[in-house]
Design a protein that fits this description.
Elements: E1 7-11, E2 21-25, E3 28-32, H1 35-38, H2 49-65, E4 72-80, E5 85-92, E6 97-105, E7 128-138, H3 139-155
Antiparallel strand pairs: 1-2, 2-3, 4-5, 5-6, 6-7
Length: 158
Amino acid sequence: MTASVALNFEVLAENKSHDNLRLRLGSYRHTCDSFYLDVDDTTTASSDLRGNLARLLEQWRNQVDGLWGAGGTAYLPYEFSDECTGWLRVSSADGRNAAVQAGWSPVNGWSFAPSDYLATAPEITDFEPEANAQIECALDDLSQCIARNAETFTASRQ
């Protein structure tokens, strides 16, 4: 049986690109902008916000799944701002369980494409954790939670 993981990304408003997304991680809440998701025009981007969120979460899941067995650390972006970015740091010492911590990096949100952030994630060496913004969970449960969250964006597009 899969345990519930307190992680969710949601759209608050469809027709604007500022303060229109919310990340929930345990009791931590952060209102985000979709601007850089909206203007992502790379070949890996979708034509709409929900498609771009689904793509972002697909990348999150691939990174989390890559921690299975060997462990390690993955950085998953959730906030793209002009002068900084918000990231979830997923750390696993044993390749089965993880600590998920929200925080910030001064990497500019405009300096990489949300639909293809994997080259930028390893460059996050200056992560500053957000207070009271951490959960612990099994990697399998986290992966399944991310997949369910992504499905909410793809299902609503049909």
